[in-house]
Amino acid sequence: DIQMTQSPSSLSASVGDRVTITCRASQSISSYLNWFQQKPGRAPKVLIYAASNLKSGVPSRFSGSGSGTDFTLTISSLQPEDFATYFCQQSFSTPLSFGQGTKLEIK
Amino acid sequence: VQLAESGGGVVQPGRSLRLSCAASGFIFSSYGMHWVRQAPGKGLEWVALIWDTGVNKYYADSVKGRFTISRDNSKNTLYLQMSSLRAEDSAVYFCARDTECTSTNCYMPEYWGHGTLVTVSS
Question: Are B71 and B78 in contact (CB under 8 A)?
Fold first, then answer.
């Protein structure tokens, strides 16, 4: 089974900051890596699919990169609505798996 | 795309419960479907996936042998039959529609319902 490890687990940042979250897979997953955003009490939403593809309607300040085992989600300039929890998910093989999440908080 | 889960509630350890997910706004029989759960204050845990035809099913190790995913394409409904429930199965259970599969992307829960809460407690 593939384990997904995110870092950091939590992060404090200010509006306008550039933020990077990393996700590491326990084995190569090519580009089968997706990023989700979740706000309290809400269902997750897809931000990035296949490592670097921005889902339609998602602001361009979000970007993803990486392949193999190491991936990053970058928010170029934090906006107030971006404070949320972010999860990566590998879609390379079953059982599918998520990272443990990164909680992004306001500094 | 609309997904509406139901069937959650409080259940004693060792008992069974069946969750349902009513789907609308898309051709249900053309998409794989997932169950994903989230324990209170915790992260997301993928639970199960069923192909569009219902032929292939996949499970997390934590639920294999206890949970069964199924679907009724004539009713546009997804199910999760949960048996031998444990306290650690307590969570909000989300159903989600898989993405439009391509050669570079599949098995991504793209559209999600609001979830239904399952509490396993005596």
Answer: yes
* Amino acid of residue A12: S
> Chain A contact for B107, CB < 8 A?
yes
Do the Cβ atoms of B26 and B1 come closer than 8 Å?
Answer: yes
Q: Give me B90's structure tokens.
A: 């307590």
B44/A95 Cβ within 8 A: no
Kindly determine whether residue B104 and residue A94, on different chains, have CB atoms separated by under 8 Å. no
Residues of A with CB below 8 A from B44's CB? 36, 38, 44, 87, 89, 98, 101
Nearest CA in chain B to A44: B112
Look at residue B104 and tell me whether its pLDDT is greater than 90.
no
Extract the tokens encoding B45: 């845990």
Average pLDDT taken over every residue of chain B: 97
When pLDDT is cut at 50, 70 and 90, the band that residue A77 belongs to is very high
**Is any Cβ of chain A less than 8 angstroms from the Cβ of B46?**
yes
Q: How far is B97 from chain A (nearest CA, A)?
A: 12
Q: DSSP states of A5-65 as a string?
A: EEE-SEEEE-TT--EEEEEEESS--TT-EEEEEE-TTS--EEEEETTTEEPTTS-TTEEEE
Span B2-33, pLDDT tens digits: 999 999 999 999 999 999 999 999 999 999 99
DSSP B51-70: -TTS--EEE-TTTTTTEEEE
